[in-house]
Amino acid sequence: MLATVGPEFGPTSVRGERLRVILVPGILEPPLALWPLALRLRWRGFRPAVYGYRSTRRTLEEHAPLFLSYVARKTHQFSEPFALVGHSMGGLVIRATLALHGRPTPGMLPGLRAVVFLGTPHRGARLAEELRDVWWFRWLFGDRAAAQLAPGHPFHRQDTVPRVPFGTIAGGTGGRQGRARWIEEDNDRVVEVSSTHLAGESDWMLLQADHQGMLHRRATADAVATFLRTGKFSDRPGAP
User: Among residues 205, 94, 204, which one has the least CA distance to residue 160?
Assistant: First the structure.
């Protein structure tokens, strides 16, 4: 079945276009890491593209105009409908782009139909806060965007959200204790489940997976594809 979009949002289209889906990796994450998900989305009828960028070299705000230019190229200057999927910090790059460069208003771009966040720390990640002063963490991740991943950073107080249907897939155990035991709540080894929520979300789901493992799960591709077609992660009647 081809993934097609209508003039606003949904599975129908007069021209039967295949929806362009742009995937954004997290910090220090190569585009290769998102290829399994991209391939599964292609098999489900979408046109995926994976954005590659030097994630540790710039702040989220500095990444935003570069990502915007990439999206413009991939969508023929926003003349084609498209969706955005961000893993981990990649979701924050999407939010920074929509907040600073959204048009005609913040949170929106011409042609944008939906946004999906995968394990994105919308309220920051305690792991980044705990390790930010450790030498090897600073050497690997730098002090630009990595510093903005701590829960107390001002970035997490900005309230611009996508003005299209958007949802989050979080990883965790579904219990009181997460995959990293030192974090005092459910988590995917990197991000706390509670940090993945974003006000106004159209849908949210918990996947039994860790932070990187979710990218290799068929269930992730199924949920993303369903959301891009319906605005919900499940198309079962009565599904939350």
Answer: 94
CATH code where residue 43 lies: 3.40.50.1820
Q: How many domains does the chain have?
A: 1
User: Within a domain: residue 14?
Assistant: no
User: Taking a C-beta distance cutoff of 8 angstroms, is the pair 118, 220 a contact?
Assistant: yes
Q: What pTM was computed for the model?
A: 0.90
Domain for residue 208, yes or no? yes
Report residue 226 as tokens: 């369903």
| Residue 236 falls inside a structural domain | no
Tens of pLDDT, residues 171-225: 999 887 777 667 778 989 999 999 999 999 999 999 999 999 999 999 999 999 9
| Residue 5 included in any domain | no
